Amino acid sequence: MNRKIISLIVAFFIILLPIKVGAVDFSIPNVKIDAFLQENGDVHVQEKHTYQFDSKFNGITREIFPKKDAEITNFSANEGEKTLKVEKEDHLYKIHRKGKNETIEIVLDYRIENGMEKYEDMTEFYWPFFDQRNEADYGNMQIMIHPPKATDDVIAFGYDQAFNKQAIGKEGIVEFALGMVPAGENGDIRVAYPSTLFPAMSSTSSGYIKNELIQAKLDLEKKAQVFAENKAKFSSLSKTLIPFFLLLFMVLLGWEHISKKRKYSLVNAELKRDHTLIPDEKMSMPATIYYTLGVEAIHVPAGLLDLVRKGIVEQRSEDEFRRIHSQVQYKHEGILLKWLFDEVGHDGYFKAEDLDTFIKKEKNLTNYHTRLTEWKQAIKDEMKEAGVRERKTGFRMTFGFISLLLLGMGIASIYYEGIPMFLTSLGLLIVAAGIACFYRPLSSKGLYIKEEWTRFLKNLNQIKSTDWQKTSEDARMRMAVLGANAKFAKTKEPQQWQKEIESIDPSFMMYTLFSVPILYGGFDQADKKYSTYSQSSTEGTTGGSAGGIGGGGGGSGAF
């Protein structure tokens, strides 16, 4: 069952992402194998392989893994009357025959020694001509087993791909018409004749085996019958399960959509009642920038100027800062203080030129990136603690339970060969598992913050100096921090809102027009230098198990 599951899943993704394996483009439309059982217990095998090539080729391959205690001898290959060169590598036979874009027919001839088992009543030939190690599809395979003499006392059956494919003909010849055999499949065959047909063969086992073979065949047939009955039941059940799960998804997701719309309406109503020009501080400014504008917008200068706003750091000039104290409110503020004023700067001071000196040493670039990552992660942690997203524990657990049901249904659909059911359950499973693992919608608080800042930023350049004059100095400094984010810092010319604030607060120039470009340029250069260093460091570094009976098997290919 596990092999079926893996094979079907792999096949599913191969369909989605087609790839070409190997340099030789070929197919094997026909294979006919004749096994002539000898009176001494050996088996003379002739295999006729038809290959269709759509590219250049140097030959074909045949891999034969004999069962335990058996041996392959006298291997040869012919094309018509011409004998071909054979090269052996362990159990792989390479038959040399060059060509391009043609169809060829190669006959392989070999002998299996010790390939049969003789009991007192019956002698059986139990053999895998291919197994799961085979890497090529067989378009149409036929296996013929010929007894030493004519008989009507025959027991024959097969496993996996060979199950229920046997037909006993005249004189006791058994034909296994396998038809299409996909790569990576097993198909052992099992044929037994009276031991009196093998007088020159020594007994390999004492006792009788006929009843055991008959029972083994009956067990296979019974198992197949039970499988067919269960398959029919599952097919009937799936006709109910698929609509049930689709309806369940529609109800749950529909209810969630209604709840989300109601939440949005309540937030909008509250925003209409709020006439504050600049949104109140509900999170630190770095966290607000991160949350509102995204991870790419947040930059170190914004965090540094926010420390100036809070009085933790003093700005002595456009590019020089002094730490006043270390009493911080958030973890990311402490990380930034230690990083800039102890590791990059010295004695509680930090200058833009300190960063240039720091990153000149390659050994410091990794430390720079580590601290930057820690700082951003701490900002992200603040956002989580602020409750901007809902946990939705019950909703996610419901979909987690549904995922388990869908997983079981998908496995069952593979086992019972219900491909439409498998594809449907796989699609629903991906959605359910994604919701269970990752669904964290905005809370009312998170939606409110997002909406108020989005609307504020949209109308930012329409705010006049007369309106800015009504705001507090702290509010204007928060706008200076906002101006230090990567989105605004990249613009060379002052924004209209900056000019409006400057007209009523000349000190604002210190925080924006001078400080931000200098600081932003230094940290942007550090980012680029680490990226180059990281890329150069990266560039400087740089038989399956047996599947057939008794460890036997094999397959075909080309080179």
Question: What is the compact description of this entry?
Answer:
By secondary structure, this protein is of the alpha+beta class.
Describe the structure.
- Helices cover 47% and strands 22% of the residues.
- The radius of gyration is 38 Å and the shape is elongated.
- The two termini are 32 Å apart.
- The relative contact order is 0.13.
- It has 15 helices and 19 strands.
- The protein has 559 residues and is an alpha+beta fold.
- Residues 10-21 and 541-545 have low confidence and may be disordered.
- Helix 6 packs parallel to helix 15.
- It has helices spanning 2-16, 210-273, 285-293, 300-309, 331-344, 352-359, 362-386, 393-415, 419-438, 444-458, 465-468, 473-483, 486-489, 496-504, 508-539; strands spanning 26-37, 43-53, 56-65, 71-79, 82-83, 86-89, 92-100, 103-113, 117-118, 122-127, 138-146, 155-158, 166-168, 174-181, 189-194, 313-317, 320-323, 349-351, 553-558.
- An eight-stranded mixed sheet has the order 5-4-8-2-1-11-14-13, with no helix packed on it. Strands 6-7-3-19 form a four-stranded antiparallel sheet, with no helix packed on it.
